[in-house]
Specification:
With 255 residues, the protein is of the alpha+beta class. The protein has two domains: 2-100, Roll (Ubiquitin Conjugating Enzyme); 128-249, Ribosomal Protein S5, domain 2, CATH 3.30.230.30. The protein is 38% helix and 22% strand. Strands 5, 6, 7, 8, 9 and 10 form a six-stranded antiparallel sheet that branches. Helix 7 crosses helix 8 (234-249). The protein is elongated. It starts with a helix and ends in a 6-residue tail after the last helix. The mean pLDDT is 90. This is Yih1 protein. Belongs to the IMPACT family. Residues 140-247 form the Impact N-terminal domain. It is found in: Cytoplasm.
């Protein structure tokens, strides 16, 4: 192993680093544009037995790089022959392919993010897709939109709400009224709470609908965008309707 590392480093300076105590060699792939590194474990019987891929850095886990590179070793390794240089040569095409695939996925992700920002969604929310969304209810300039999502713990409720409020469109709402109910696992004990967010009685109204429908493990948010005209008690009618529609859209209650 030490002789091979010395030879490899004479060809590709600083490419290989050996760890004799763990029988591993870290290879900084000279053909990689992203600085991919592969760690190989060498059995005591090497070169009679093939090395194993321990780790591949800088590539997405979804690419399953360790498995792909190990398959190359299994198909190209010849017992009794040193293999480090052959390995670098054999994996060049596959590494380039995985890097190109990852870059394409990143470009698509960045484009999708720009599109979401252009339409007022996705400023910072990572979980916006988990929420069901209602149609808008408009009344004298005010707009009401309901959202519902499954949540299995109070900590998950907190995470989902904090994340949702990072969304650009949600953040613009004048009132983000919310309520949630979570089964504690103890018979007869339900964790539940609400937030009026400046619209007195609104959060309790949402929670009351959830209680009547016996909804558990869920969180509901109704956003109101104020249009400058006070609509009186009618606002609670719209909040209730947005709550029901959100729960129905999320499959949490049946029509």
């Amino acid at each position: 192993m030490e002789e091979e590392v010395e030879i490899i480093n004479s060809i590709f300076e600083g490419c290989a680093t050996i760890s004799p105590e763990t029988f591993t060699v870290c290879l900084k792939l000279p053909q990689s544009d992203l600085g991919v590194e592969v760690t190989l474990w060498y059995p005591v019987a090497y070169p009679e037995e093939a090395p194993r891929v321990v780790k591949v850095s800088k590539l997405n886990a979804e690419l399953d790089a360790e498995k792909r590179l190990q398959q190359i070793i299994d198909h190209t390794f010849i017992p009794g022959e040193v293999y480090m240089y052959t390995f670098l040569d054999e994996i060049e095409v596959d590494v380039k392919d995985m890097e190109a695939q990852m870059e394409t996925e990143m470009e698509i992700s960045n484009l999708a993010q720009k599109i979401r920002q252009q339409i007022g969604e996705g400023k910072g929310s990572q979980h916006i897709g988990k929420w069901s969304v209602t149609s808008e209810i408009r009344d004298r300039g005010s707009t009401f939109i309901g959202r519902a999502c499954v949540a299995n713990s109070e900590s998950e409720v907190e995470m989902l709400l904090a994340d949702l409020f990072e969304d650009k469109k949600v953040a613009k709402a004048n009132h983000k009224m919310a309520a949630w109910r979570v089964d504690t696992g103890t018979p007869g004990i339900m964790a539940q709470d609400f937030d009026d967010d400046g619209e007195a009685g609104a959060g309790g109204c949402i929670l009351h609908i959830m209680q009547l429908a016996q909804v558990t493990n869920a969180v509901v948010v109704v956003c109101r965008y104020f249009g400058g005209v006070h609509i009186g008690p009618d606002r609670f009618k719209h909040i209730k309707q947005s709550t029901r529609d959100a729960l129905i859209n999320a499959g949490l209650i049946k029509i």
